[in-house]
Amino acid sequence: MSQADQRVAVVFPGQGSQRPGMARAWREQPAFARWAEADALLDLDVTHLGIDADADELRVPLHCQIALFVHFVVQYETWRATGGDAGVAAGHSLGEYAALFAADVLDFADGLRLVEARARATQAAAEQHPGTMVACLGYPVETVGEACAAVGAHVANDNAPGQLVVGGTADALDRLRAALEDSGERGKVVTLEVGAAYHSPHMEPAVEPFGAALDAAAFSPARIPVVANVDAQPHRSAADWPAILRAQLTSPVRWRESVRTFTELGVTQVVELGPSAVLAGLVKRTDRSLARTTVVAPEELAGAPQ
Fold first, then answer.
1. Does residue 289 carry a catalytic annotation?
2. Is 2 within a domain?
3. In the listed set 191, 218, 242, which residue is the last one of a domain according to the structure?
4. Domain ranges, residue 110
């Protein structure tokens, strides 16, 4: 494919999609060399994280985020080598950095260094302002928003109709659960195994230290538009991204609206690249007219748009 296919959006999931041994199936692909490149750039055994790390080791935010970024790049470059391409890119939270790589906004080295800096900054923020997250399933977005305002919690991800993720202190989330039970609406609240209230004001201490890393990175004009988490709008300008990525730390991921934007841009197919299927289900809940393909293993590339 000589030009980007405007009908296709390529998307990348975020933290939580990792799997032990996720890189093993990709070892025969030329793009697998990115793991060794990451080892050298960070002076860290990143390859171990993709090949041998167990689930507990991959739960560490620094390990998880670095390993996922490298894995996304290997998958994306392998897909491109088979003739795949997209006219739009997007990623959920951490996955946004892979989308920026796919759009040629960030090169591999700058993207990797930003992911490392982001992981370290958000972990430090989580230690200053402890929190966690819950998924609110089945409730209207207005009901969840009103309950959050009443108890001091924060909508962190608007993922799909009837699926929102909320962050806050453990006490605030207990009050949220009670408020939703008393709302008269039907739904359930599920505790998530995360150690921080990401995409909320709890991450404010991360903004300044991460900003220094953003100022040191080189951003280029986008080859294809990237739909940003913070505003669900397509962006091409290199100048947009430092402010967007700062804001992403403390702002909700507007994934439901991002999927609507895909349709407005003429997208008819969504290709999810990642170690497990996450976003395809959210796309289906939001807009069933969009065809969906998930690539987890190399043999699944044959079923992806070419």
1. no
2. no
3. 191
4. 8-127+201-303
Residue 5 has pLDDT above 90, yes or no: no
Q: Active site residue: 17, 93, 200, 251, which one?
A: 93
Contacts of 126 (CB under 8 A, 6+ apart): 61, 195, 196, 197, 202, 203
Q: How confident is the model at residue 304 (pLDDT cuts 50, 70, 90)?
A: confident
pLDDT, average across residues 265-279: 96
The residue assigned the tokens 């044959």 is 302
Residue 214 and residue 245 in contact, taking contact as beta carbons nearer than 8 Å: yes
Q: What is the CATH number of the domain that holds 62?
A: 3.40.366.10
Q: Is 154 a catalytic residue?
A: no
Q: What are phi and psi of 55, to 5 degrees?
A: -60, -40
Same-domain check for residues 72 and 147: no
The predicted structure's pLDDT at residue 2: 38
What is the H or E stretch that residue 262 is in?
helix 255-264
33 and 173 belong to one structural domain = no
Average pLDDT score, the chain:
95
pLDDT over 90 at 306, yes or no? no
CA 30 – CA 33 distance, rounded (Å): 6
Please state the pTM of the whole predicted model: 0.95
Residue 30: C-alpha distances to residues 36, 156, 275, 277 (Å) = 12, 37, 18, 24
CATH number of the structural domain spanning residue 137: 3.30.70.250
- Active-site option among 63, 154, 199, 202: 199
Residues 206 and 106 in one domain: yes
Q: Are residues 183 and 282 in the same domain?
A: no
Contact (CB, 8 A) for 11 and 91: yes
